[in-house]
Specification:
Elements (H helix, E strand, L loop, with lengths): L1 H6 L3 E5 L17 H4 L4 E5 L7 E3 L20 E8 L1 H6 L4 E2 L1 H11 L7 E5 L9 H4 L6 E2 L1 H10 L4 E4 L11 H8 L4 E3 L12 E6 L12 E5 L2 E6 L2 E6 L2 E3 L1
Parallel strand pairs: 4-6, 5-7, 6-8, 8-9
Antiparallel strand pairs: 1-2, 3-9, 4-10, 10-11, 11-14, 12-13
Helix pairs in contact: 4-6
Length: 243
């Protein structure tokens, strides 16, 4: 998604200009390799609500934390992936139901408390098609399924491939999430490369002061094993997929 944002002018990249440094740089000069020995990049982000992102609850409810106030416990979490792509293939506007969560648990067991739950719809596979992005219907996460995940299973947060939680007229699922202090992931991808259970998700994002959204990198890791030997350790892990 980053490349398309740059092409559409929603994200701009330029050179950092200097302050006056006697004998080294004049005010307003761009730092250049051949002139100063290094370069520095300036970024202009026109929105924090496109691409793969993490919405803090302050996105809708300013009384709750912004992106810079989320705790460090978000860094590495157990990951669960609930597939609904078969139903989305038949109905592009399908919203995940409690029954989908129950079907998942019948196969895999109870969702662990504190997990991150991503909903696989395969919607991200159409991102590079401009006509696809104009479709009025998109898959979402139904309100009752969100309540079940948060109130019954006590997950940390959920995520989905489209750029909105649900397609109801007033975004009732997203409204409920934010106004109850929950964060969410949007614009996730590559979930077809991730197992339904057994992975960890590493989460990395810039902490913009007071930000109500933010670009983020999610990396699913499978499996993770540490062997303690004497006073050191040896680690091994399988493939990783950026989601």
């Amino acid at each position: 998604m980053g490349q398309s944002l740059l092409q559409n002018g929603l994200f701009q990249r330029g050179k950092v200009t200097a302050i006056e440094v006697d004998g080294f740089a004049k005010k307003g000069d761009a730092f250049l390799f051949d002139k100063h020995g290094f370069e520095a990049t300036a970024y202009v982000l026109r929105t924090d609500q496109l691409g793969t992102q993490l919405d803090p609850p302050a996105h809708w409810a300013p009384e709750y934390p912004g992106i810079d106030e989320l705790p460090a416990t978000y860094t590495l979490r157990p990951l669960v992936v609930i597939p609904i792509e078969d139903k989305v293939a038949k109905d592009p506007g399908y919203q995940m139901q409690v029954s989908d969560v129950e079907e998942f648990e019948n196969r895999n067991g109870k969702i662990p408390e504190g997990s991150v739950v991503f909903v696989r719809s395969n919607w991200s596979k159409g991102w590079n098609d401009i006509e696809f992005t104009k479709r009025p219907k998109f898959p979402g996460v139904g309100l009752e399924s969100l309540k079940f995940l948060h109130l019954q299973r006590k997950i940390l947060f959920d995520g989905h491939e489209p750029l909105d939680t649900d397609n109801t007229p007033k975004y009732e699922s997203e409204y409920w999430l934010m106004h109850n202090g929950y964060a969410q992931a949007e614009g996730v991808m590559n979930l077809d490369q991730v197992k339904e259970t057994g992975c960890l998700v590493a989460i990395d994002y810039p902490k913009f002061k007071g930000g109500v959204g933010g670009y983020v990198r999610y990396v699913a890791i499978w499996p993770c094993r540490l062997e303690i030997r004497n006073r050191g350790w040896r680690g091994s892990r399988g493939p990783a997929a950026e989601v």
